[in-house]
Amino acid sequence: MLFPLTVVVLAGAVALLAIAGWYAARTRLVDDRLLLVAAVVELGVLVQAAVALAHLGSVPGDDAETATFAAYAITLPFLPPVAVFLALKEKTRWSMGVVAVAAFAVAVMTARLQQIWNLHG
Amino acid sequence: MADAPRSTRSGPGIVLVAVYGLLALAATGRSVLQITEYFSRAPLAYVLSALAAVIYVVATIALARGDRTSRRVATTAITIELAGVLVVGLASYLATDAFPDKTVWSHFGSGYGYVPLVLPVLGLLWLRRTASRPASTAQAAGDPTG
């Protein structure tokens, strides 16, 4: 897996988590800044999915690990759009909770992808 | 409509729906993998894992819909979920052989940061809280979107 890409996605997810927490504290709703960061994360996970699927053959470990790897890579790009959609519909500070949950999930799943990739050096 | 039930998907409920959705996804994915790749290793654990996945999917949809029937479905699903995580959590410590690797509910959901243990409690509390809204609590809550 491209390590710099993982770093970009992780940084974006952490930034999104921080913005969501900050907005929730200030009772602010989805705005351009949040959408922009979410878009960067989305772009990152899309590239990540393409790279991951292109290198499926060289995933270390058994079939189960390959399947997990592919499932995570394919699922990830769905998270930011769904979270943003739900957050746009919910006009209370709780909308930021949805964004935070999604950002956290993106970070965990991306870290897990990298972990599987690193299994055997 | 003063005593109409509050929507289960607005306010804190939307976060609950999001977390349930995520767990539904994770549990379904893991369950499909376990059953297709190595079912014979621990049939009981993997059947329970599949049950957990179904429960999470049902709970997510029911909480997101939130009408009267959905509310009943959600309450039933989440109650089974609470019982499941407690029973499977305990069983995974007592009968380690039957639970060789992590499932959503084994070890009280430790593989998922104990979210599976906390979530049904929050879910049931939320269903209770939104069940009816007497005028006094509506005012006390001061929620303009309620």
Short description:
The complex is a heterodimer of chains A (121) and B (146). Chain A has 121 residues and is mainly α.
Pick out its properties.
heterodimer; A: 121 residues; 5 helices; 78% helix; elongated; B: 146 residues; 0% strand
Question: What do you see in this structure?
Answer:
- With 121 residues, chain A is mostly helical.
- Chain A has one domain (3-120).
- Chain A is built from 5 helices and no strands.
- In chain A, helix 3 runs antiparallel to helix 5 and helix 4 (79-89) packs antiparallel against helix 5.
- The N and C termini of chain A lie close together (11 Å).
- Chain B starts with 11 loop residues before the first helix and ends in a 5-residue tail after the last helix.
- Chain B is elongated and about 50 Å long.
- With 146 residues, chain B is mainly alpha-helical.
- In chain B, helix 1 (12-38) runs antiparallel to helix 2 (43-65), helix 1 (12-38) crosses helix 4 and helix 2 runs antiparallel to helix 3 (68-94).
- Chain B has helices spanning 12-38, 43-65, 68-94, 115-131, 135-141.
- Classes of the chains: A mainly alpha (121), B mainly alpha (146).
- At the A-B interface, helix 3, helix 4 and helix 5 of A face helix 1 of B.
What structural category characterises the helix and strand content of chain A? mainly alpha
Strand content of chain B: under 5%
> What is the first-to-last residue Cα distance of chain A?
11 Å
**SSE class of chain B:** mainly alpha
SS element count, helices of chain A = 5
From N to C, what is the helix and strand string of chain B? HHHHH
Number of domains of chain A: 1
- How many strand elements of chain A? 0
What is the string of helix and strand elements of chain A? HHHHH
Overall pLDDT confidence of chain B: 87
Report the portion of residues of chain A in β strands: under 5%
Tertiary shape of chain B: elongated
Helix share bin of chain A: over 70%
Largest sheet of chain B: none
Distance between the termini of chain B: 12 Å
The largest inter-chain interface, given as chain pair and residues per side, is: A-B, 19 and 18 residues
Global shape of chain A: elongated
